[in-house]
Amino acid sequence: MTAPTLTTRAPLLEANWMHVCSLSALEVERGRAALVGHEQVALFLLTDGSVRAVDNYDPYSGANVISRGIVGSRGDRPTVASPMYKQIFDLRSGTCVETQGKEFRRLRVWPVRTRDGELFLQRGGAR
């Protein structure tokens, strides 16, 4: 399966949302990387059917690898563990919940919407 990429199709939502890929391009609890403009975004389809999008850039290793991380949870928070140094990030807030003894850093979170089996990210990027 190829990684989803930003398409030029006109979004079905307001002008401030851009189409990224079909939901069928995602697998449950398997990350996918998408190029959105000049930024890499890690996309995650969770078991409850929700989709989360965070920076693919790992602030601890400096590599674009978050989409290859291991999806899990801490309590009711969905998380992803970086495949490099194993820091664990909350997929809802981007907060690093396990720094492995390093200084605190976070991932930016991208607002996500789904409609008719398609995934959209908010223009203007992450928070």
Please provide a written account of the structure.
The chain has strands at 17-22, 32-36, 39-45, 51-55, 70-74, 77-81, 88-90, 96-98, 109-110, 112-115, 118-122. The protein is mostly beta strands. The chain has a four-stranded antiparallel β-sheet with strand order 2-3-4-9, with no helix packed on it. A four-stranded antiparallel β-sheet has the order 5-6-7-8, with no helix packed on it. It is globular and about 40 Å long. 29% of the residues are buried. The model is unreliable at 5-12 (pLDDT under 50).
In short:
This protein has 127 residues and is mainly β. Helices cover 0% and strands 39% of the residues. The chain is built from no helices and eleven strands.
Task: Give the helix/strand layout.
Elements: E1 17-22, E2 32-36, E3 39-45, E4 51-55, E5 70-74, E6 77-81, E7 88-90, E8 96-98, E9 109-110, E10 112-115, E11 118-122
Antiparallel strand pairs: 1-11, 2-3, 3-4, 4-9, 5-6, 6-7, 7-8, 10-11
Query: Strand sequence of the main sheet, in spatial order?
Result: 2-3-4-9
Mean pLDDT across the residues is: 90
The class by helix and strand makeup works out as mainly beta
* N-to-C order of helices and strands: EEEEEEEEEEE
What is the terminal-to-terminal distance? 29 Å
- Overall shape: it is globular
How many strands, what sense, and barrel or not for the largest sheet?
A: 4 strands, antiparallel
- Beta content: 35-45%
Helix content: under 10%
Radius of gyration of CA atoms, rounded to a whole number: 14 Å
Low-confidence stretches: 5-12
Say how many strands there are.
Answer: 11
Count, helices: 0
